[in-house]
Structures are given as C-alpha cells and as structure tokens.
Amino acid sequence: MHLLQVSHLKKYYATHKAVDDISFDIPSGSIFGLLGPNGAGKTTLLRMITGIFFPDEGSITFDGRPYHALGDSANIGYMPEERGLYKKMKVEEQVLYLAQLKGMHYRDATEKINYWFARFDINSWRYKKIEELSKGMQQKVQFISTILHGPKLLILDEPFSGLDPINASLIKNEIFNLAQQGTTIIFSTHRMGEVEEICNSIVLVNKGKKILDGGVAQIKQQFKQHLFKIAFGQPINPAHMATYHFTLVKQEDNAYILKKNPDSSTNDILSHFIRQEVTITHFEEILPSLNEIFIQQVQLMETAGVPIVAA
C-alpha cells in the first residue's frame, strides 16, 4: 500500500516553474529518496506535501485519501534544511512545546523526551538554551522534535548537514529503526552518494522536472554498462585476454576492467579464466552510481532538446 501518492503536481511563481508536472508514489514503511541538486524543486515539493504551499495543479493522496493539511499534519514530521528552533528557549521547553503543538499530552511528551534525551545522550543539556548548543547538538534536538510524536510520514531535508561522522551514524541508525517500525521516510538531499545505502527507492528531479524514479537497485541495473572488475593472484599473460566474450577496457596492476559482450554471460568470462588455470582473487560487476546516472540523464535531456525550466 502507498502511504503517499503525488500526482501531476505543479507550482509556478509568475513564469517560474518550480515544480513542473511531477508524480510519484511512496510505499508504506519505505525510505524514499528525493534527490537532485540545489534549486531542483525538492523543497517546494516538500512544502506542498506538508501543506505549507498549495499546488497550482495536481493532487496529493495521504494514507488512501485526499491530503488535508490541518487534519493530517499530526501524522507528519518535517525537519527542514533551515533549522527552526527558538534560540532563547531551553532545550526541554523547546521539544515539549513542539510536541504539544502536534497534539501530544504533557505526560506522554515528557516520557518520550526522557527516552530520546537518554538515547541521544543530551540529558545534561536539557536546561541549556538552544543558542548555547553546538550546531550538531542542535541538529539532534531538531531530529528528536521531529520524531517525538510518532509520525506516519517523516520528512528529512538534508538531515546530516553539520553533523560529525559519529552523530551522522547515530541518526542514520535511528532512520533505519523507524523504517523497521513502519514509519515512511522521505529523505531529501543533493548528496546522492548518501542515499545508496539508505533508500529503498528514489525520484530524481532537476529544474522542476522528474528525470526518473524507481527502486535504487532496479535503476542501477537499468543503467549498467556490463562492466566487470576481475583480479588475479599473479600477472596474466596478455594472450589470456584475447577472447570473444569480453573487451579489455583497462588494467589496474593485477586487476582488469572488462566489458562483457552482449551475447556472452558472466559464466563465460569466469570459465575463460578457469581454463587458463589462473587464480581469481576478486570478481564483481561495476554498477553506475546514482550521481553518474543523474548526470547522464540530464545530459541526454538537454541533447534531445527537452525544455528544462529553471526552478
């Protein structure tokens, strides 16, 4: 079942097309990547999903029914890229205030605050003002404020910005835990390398337009170039590289990058070297990164003359 369905969304600012006819579906309990460079239209999309902006055209379905900003906001947690904490408020007061805005009772909110403050090791900071915290500590407080009320849909816009590797890993683990418990997560970023280990599926947008969407593994398979890396325990006679089954692309010490011919199989490549009685120490298929796929698709659209209007 899809928790969120976005259908033909459009948002214009005068002649400026921030979001230009974008559609995608997000399955319940999945981690969904909304990817694209700065200015791609990601934040405008998120603001329409959260009800901050209304679309000029198109529709949003949430949990099987038309989305209503007032009624559904309690089921959504949104952590924007621009942090929204009140600098003069104390940490516990800030989190409690935001929890109550989401409809939580004081007692329930306090219990959850005690749990998450202990989990994130910030109990000693609970009576400090937000302005006294480091940027990374503020980020952890913002994350707790976003998830405290147990939203069905969690939207994280550049959640690792300003975090050191340890705290980034901490929040990443909590993202996985929340997804396992059934929370649907939208992870928005322009750093495409971060999502390959996090997201189940993605949509790539650029300048207000959707470029492609689908499962991460599916997309990488779709754009693979049949390249393989193979390494050996000893130098290889160049004559062993002469075969119908592949073309040698380049050599890196005792490792070789090969391109499989269309009518050959992976087993054909391995069988070729096994017959040569050489020791194979490594063999893997080289799949393109999401960043490589994105750049390729943008270039193809521009070459084909498809109009891309700046967001």
UniProtKB/TrEMBL annotation:
Q: What SUPFAM superfamilies does the database record attribute to this sequence?
A: P-loop containing nucleoside triphosphate hydrolases
Source species of the chain: Chitinophaga costaii
Asked whether the UniProt record includes Transport among its keywords, one would answer yes
Superkingdom per UniProt: Bacteria
UniProt-recorded Gene Ontology molecular function terms = ATP binding; ATP hydrolysis activity
Q: Does the keyword Transport apply?
A: yes
The molecule here is called ABC-2 type transport system ATP-binding protein
Q: Where does the ABC transporter domain lie?
A: 4-232
UniProt similarity note: Belongs to the ABC transporter superfamily.
Q: Which UniProt keywords apply?
A: ATP-binding, Nodulation, Nucleotide-binding, Transport
